[in-house]
Amino acid sequence: MVSVASSAQLLARVGHDRAGLNLIVLDLQLPDAPGVALVRSLRKLVDGRVPLLIFSGSVARAQEVRELAALGVAGYINEFSAAVQIVPALAPHLFPDNFNRRGSPRVVLGIPVQYRFGNTIAAALTLNLSRGGIAIRTTSPLEAGAKLKVRFRMPGSQRDIDAEGRVAWQDRRVGMGIQFDAVDPANQALIDHFVDGHFVSKKQ
User: Fold this and answer.
1) Which single residue of 90, 101, 111, 201 has CA 20 to 30 Å from 80?
2) Which residues constitute the domain of residue 180?
């Protein structure tokens, strides 16, 4: 792992060692360059081969979220998340061959989740959430392809979200990823709104 203190140092390091990079975790508040412009420069250097995660407490504007998504940002990690949530969230990007990667950005999120398969009900914490699925932290993941039902409650919400899905990936070091197959449209809208707006500052 290599750390840098400015965007100039980051660009120099990436340009010097492109072949040795597996993942870039970027703070949008690095000195010397606006966040989106820096991501654009990084994308040109690595040519899309290295996944890039945004590590930040907030993104200044909704337009920034759209611009970052268009540049292929792999996900977002809130800098105020606990370390026990951050480290497992990096695993799908560090070990991509072991995971079925979802197309939309993920938000690191540690909330209680209940999942049911057959007659068994289990409780755990989530790792992250995207428009199309949810990752669950467990040392006893189900087999890939297994069908199950999940129930969770979005932060600040007073109602549960129920979804049907299947295991897209599983890894005993981390947990398992659930791809949604069926979600009520109103609940899907809540998920989409949360994922799209999670890092947009309220001070717009």
Assistant:
1) 101
2) 107-196
